[in-house]
Amino acid sequence: MKRADLEHILRAASAITNERDFIVIGSQAILGQFPNAPPELLISDEVDIYPRHRPDLADLIDGAIGELSFFHDEFGYYAQGVGPTTAVLPAGWEARLVPVTNENTHGAVGHCLELHDMLAAKYVAAREKDRHFCRSAVRRGLADEATLLRRIAELPVSEERKGALEKDVASDFAVARRGA
User: What are the phi and psi torsion angles at 48 (to 5°)?
Assistant: First the structure.
């Protein structure tokens, strides 16, 4: 995926829903903060998105430009309509959103998760693809360990879970420092 692909999805989602503000929460939210992110962070062909003020319209996005749609077949990428509870996010995440809007979005705004908020959510999700994404972002030097640990502390999960996540973060940074 490229930044232009994200912009295209924002434009299409806006046309489908008549909404202008969208939340982008998946891995491709990295394109907000890092338009030229390293290739290994851009392998997903989906954008997880929902209308900020009308999350109930996410199904329209899924149906029109979702997986296996004509849009997906035509362009090779698609939108996954999600909702506000799809990701477990740190307190204050909305104040740190990174907007994507320009002439290519035709007035639509994709409010992309800030990198550390997205990484915290990915550590919670703990799927192999999420762990790989986190390790790659750390190895590439995009994330700051102290900031990420603060975001982990702000997650709405148990203290026991936070402790396990902090160990995962520390391990990933230790491996990156060793150059492995």
Answer: -85, 120
What is the rounded CA–CA span in Å between residue 175 and residue 124?
20
> 21 has which bridge partners?
109
93: its two tokens: 């995440």
CA distance 29 to 117: 10
Other residues' Cβ atoms within 10 Å of the Cβ of residue 174: 12
Strand-strand pairing, 46-51 and 78-81: parallel
Nearest to 45 by CA among 87, 9, 13: 9
Per-residue pLDDT of 83-132, as tens digits, reads 999 999 999 999 999 999 999 999 999 999 999 999 999 999 999 999 99
CA gap 3, 110 in Å, rounded: 11
Residue 42: helix, strand or coil by DSSP? coil
Domain ranges of the chain: 3-114, 116-178
